[in-house]
Amino acid sequence: MQTVRLTTAQAIVRWMMAQRTILDEGADAPLFPGIFGIFGHGNVTCLGHALEEVKDEFPTWRGQNEQGMALAAVAYNKAVKGRQIMSATSSIGPGATNMVTAAAVASANRLPLLLFAGDTFVSRIPDPVLQQVENFGDPSMTVNDAFKPVTKYWDRITHPAQIVQSLPAALVTMLDPSTRGPAFIGLPQDVQAMAYDYPVRFFEPTVNEVPRPRPDKSEVVAAVEVLKEARKPLIICGGGVHYSAAEATLAEFAHAHHIPVVETVAGKSCLLGDDRMYVGPIGVTGCEAANNLAAEADVVLAVGCRLQDFTTGSWTIFKNEDTKIIGINTTRFDAVKHRSIPVVGDARETLREIDSVLGDWTGPDAWIEQAGEEKAGFRAYLDQIGAPTDGEGPVSYAQVVAAVNRNAQPGDVCLAAAGGFPGEVNNGWWNRGIGTFDCEYGYSCMGYEVAGGWGASMAYGPGGGAEREGEIFVFCGDGSYLMMNSDLYSSVLTGHKMILIVCDNGGFAVINRLQTGQGGIPFNNLIADCRLAGDVVEVDFAAHAAAMGCQAETVSTIAELDAAVERARAADVTSVIALKVDPYAWTKGGSFWEVGVPEVSTRSEVLDARAEIDKGRADQRVGW
What we know:
The protein is of the alpha/beta class. The protein folds into 3 domains: 3-208, Thiamin diphosphate (ThDP)-binding fold, Pyr/PP domains (Rossmann fold), CATH 3.40.50.970; 217-377, TPP-binding domain (Rossmann fold, 3-Layer(aba) Sandwich), CATH 3.40.50; 388-580, 3-Layer(aba) Sandwich (Rossmann fold), CATH 3.40.50.970. The strands form 5 sheets. A 6-stranded parallel β-sheet has the order 5-4-6-7-9-8, with helices on both faces. A 6-stranded parallel β-sheet has the order 14-13-12-15-16-17, sandwiched between helices. Helix 13 links the parallel strand 16 and strand 17 (341-344). The protein is globular, with a radius of gyration of 25 Å.
């Protein structure tokens, strides 16, 4: 057997470079297009050295924060539908634990992500080493064990030969749709440096293609029997539709069988906004049009959905007690939720097989007409609240989203995350292109916005795995901006442009809304309601962004925003547009959402809110 002597770190890098993938268009590309890295004593001398040796063939991108760079990798991997895997590396200790949040984001969103972190010495002779947290009863435990609950594959390399088994196993886990999620590899400092005679064939170019599992025929037949009895069928499309690249197939299926379509946050932009079958977003951050249809639907075809509480209104949306749910998913865990009728398989292939058995069956025309009327009412409402006004005071989120959306091109991408924006962009952003929306709401991670914009710009920009014409519009609240903004600097340094809209509502306004809406008093959410030493200090977001090299400006009206967006389009660098927005103006709609409200309180408003929660829970689907 022919071998080559390499360090563990060199072998890892060489193996990654040998992996290829097939993109949606059939093009062969690197499976690992690069790696994000912040170096420290746990990875700089070995893995860092190995990466430096191949820096021209395998790019290493330096972030400003380990969580940010790993989130950028998540956004990249989402944009390419999991066909490529951006990875990230950190040193030991705090650098590693900074990436735990990003791993959770990838896990909740069912996305591949490969993380490498330095670790303590296998020999334990130098222990305790710098940044080591010791466990008195288990000396084998390090902070890297914190990745176990938020990854689908976890390993610590204690001998150089291990990677011959561990790396392919991690890859299979990340690419298989039934297990897809993040993988973590811990790299002890002494093992990284060890040399080993690796088999040359381990580094031979290998083409990896994401499998498309076909459904069991009996499950297809069972689903078709249920669908054929439907008088008010409804399709809910989730993020799995995007991961499967099944958008066109879903549209054809919906049109052929006359079934209206609603979207989850992750599934948004599977259909164009003006598609006849498209109604709107469903759930807590959705609209009345979609939720009204869900309340009457007798058969729900959930395609690629996790069916989390924001989609189901804490399981109160499906008010018809005879409603049957058909769960199309690559994982049986998701396909059977709440006694759904499972069809386990790839979304695109499963829809095609159901279609072939379903034949020429269609839903009633009256149901499609009702869906159209609901949609028209929703659009009229959006037009009303999104229209510019000449009055004094701050503009609303809805007006900001509508303004950018009016000027959007089919290739422009809308990106957002937690806070007030999910409900606003999920409703107000009208899909002008397929696959042009990324709102991180699987883990609802504040701070994803800027880092995600950086990663998305890499994916959609020249040479990226999802290259397209258009701008990356990132919507971010002041709270998220203050949490994590440093990758604006990263985007400037690397030339990956985004347009960031920073809406300042004076703090965490959407949580203030929840707090006061459930009977509480404003406390510790809006900056004005926090413990302060004096008057509120206003942050100049434009000046801050400009200090990191961005083109930046502050506007106060929608007309000024329109002009600023055009200037941002014309710029060749990341642009930041800051403006104040009303902290109390929100897009209406949505549905019941169960949160914990005290049963005992000195405030009558809290007790009233508790009574409303108890009332809403009566509609929950339990054991149907």
